[in-house]
Design goal:
By secondary structure, the protein is α+β, with helices and mostly antiparallel strands. The chain contains 12 helices and 10 strands. The longest helix has 32 residues. The structure holds flavin-adenine dinucleotide. Flavin-adenine dinucleotide binds next to strand 1, strand 3 and helix 12.
């Protein structure tokens, strides 16, 4: 699909490809084992412009489009899907919410520091009652003098080492209930990161519960309208879903490339394994499926970039591409036989990362519910998922 890309997009994709293959891939197994990425890697991503790629130039970023951003994420994910997943939150979701809802002061406070990698941000919505079931959420903002107090608890917050948390919460104004968005500083009194979970995949970052005990929120820390902030972020959520789909696509592509090398050099019954027809048949189907995913993804990002989205393309990409990538990784892992089950081979992390992506950033079922509600013209309670 290179012929669809302009010169800037191709150049940035190639920069990301070189960085991913030369600097990220050699560290990918260690990132998976340690459940942490070295700070030096994030610093390299700042130097290469990845962190501020989608942030407009007037706020210290590169001002690239979503297509370029997804191309970079796909390349990074070929080497380390979990590192790419972590960057996706930093490159798209958090800065996009801050830019869409923020006042000039809030944008200046959050975006240039984010592009420089000095302000790592996290996005927190999920609660014990479910990610999307916001009507049952308990985290609540209440008025206190000229500001507010925040109380409650969240689950599965990715980027445990963030300095700034963008938090969804129940709100009230003049007797009316809403669901808004606030900025919480990691150092705020009453805020705590409770623990990090040991998880199946996506191990390049910490994920865990966070809680708020009477945390003071200044009026200037509310992002967007107090009652409708969360609903307003639907369009940027759709962009974020495409970023996550790009990481799943890169995940399967990276595993495919390593598996092709493996079946070419592995000998079975005195012949290269690549000559077995079940292998060639499966490889052909996998390559075709991934190319179909690529077509869906970059058609969707182009529509987003041109402001022509008339369907929830982000949810379509998240659901279809993540499921397809997982199926492909499952098939590819089988080709490695027993070696694939051994962590030392370094290939089963792709399978685990692809599996984790079926839940993280909204499960497949949640995205399918959003897509079908649009198709059927039905009302939905899925709020900020809908574009
Ligand atoms: C590695 C990882 C990182 C994460 N990072 C973050 C983060 O940074 N911030 C954050 O806020 N959240 C984060 N999450 C949470 C993630 O978004 C949720 O786990 C996911 O959306 C599913 O929600 P749940 O866990 O509450 O499942 P539940 O809501 O308990 O769902 C259970 C099952 O019911 C299905 N289901 C739920 N609702 C519907 C529906 N309406 N229609 C059909 N089926 C439905 C689900 O698909 C699932 O199969 C992360 C999760 C993981 C695994």
């Amino acid at each position: 699909m290179s012929y669809f890309l302009n010169e800037d997009q191709t150049m940035m994709r190639d920069v990301a490809r070189r960085f991913a293959q030369n600097e990220l891939l050699p560290l990918a197994n260690k990132i998976d084992a340690d459940e942490a990425a070295p700070a030096s890697l994030t610093q390299r991503c700042v130097e290469l412009g990845f962190l501020g790629l989608w942030i407009p130039e007037e706020y210290g970023g590169v001002g690239a489009d979503l297509t370029t951003t997804c191309l970079v994420l796909e390349e990074l994910a070929k080497a380390s899907p979990s590192f790419a997943g972590l960057l996706s939150v930093e490159m798209i979701l958090c800065p996009a919410v801050a830019h869409l809802l923020g006042t000039e002061e809030q944008r200046q406070r959050l975006l240039p520091a984010s592009a420089r990698g000095e302000r790592i941000m996290a996005f927190s919505q999920t609660e014990p009652s479910g990610a999307i079931n916001t009507q049952a959420h308990q985290t609540k903002l209440t008025a206190d003098g000229n500001g507010y107090r925040l109380n409650g608890a969240k689950l599965f917050c990715t980027q445990g080492q963030a300095t700034t948390y963008i938090v969804m919460c129940r709100t009230q104004r003049d007797g009316q209930n809403g669901y808004g968005v606030v900025i919480v500083d990691r150092e705020a009194k009453g805020f705590s990161v409770d623990k990090y979970e040991d998880k199946l995949g996506w191990r390049g970052t910490n994920t865990g519960p966070i809680s708020f005990n009477d945390v003071r929120i200044e009026a200037g820390d509310v992002l967007g309208d107090l009652l409708t902030g969360n609903a307003a972020i639907a369009p940027v959520n759709q962009a974020s879903f495409m970023g996550h789909a790009a990481t799943s696509l890169g995940c399967a592509q990276g595993m495919l490339e390593q598996t092709v090398d493996y079946v070419k050099q592995r000998t079975l019954y005195g012949e290269p394994m690549a000559k077995l027809s079940p292998i060639t048949d499966r490889l052909a189907i996998i390559v075709s499926k991934l190319e179909a995913c690529r077509a869906l993804l970059y058609t969707s990002t182009k529509l987003y970039d041109e402001d022509k989205m008339d369907q929830p393309y982000g949810s379509m990409c998240k659901s279809f591409i993540c499921e397809t990538a997982y199926e492909c990784c499952h098939q590819l892992l089988q080709m490695w036989g027993g070696s694939g089950m051994m962590n030392s081979t370094g290939v089963n992390r792709y399978f685990r990362d692809a599996r984790t992506k079926l839940v993280a950033e909204g499960s497949t079922e949640i995205h399918n519910a959003a897509i079908s509600a649009v198709v059927l013209g039905l009302p939905t309670q899925l709020g900020s998922l809908m574009g």
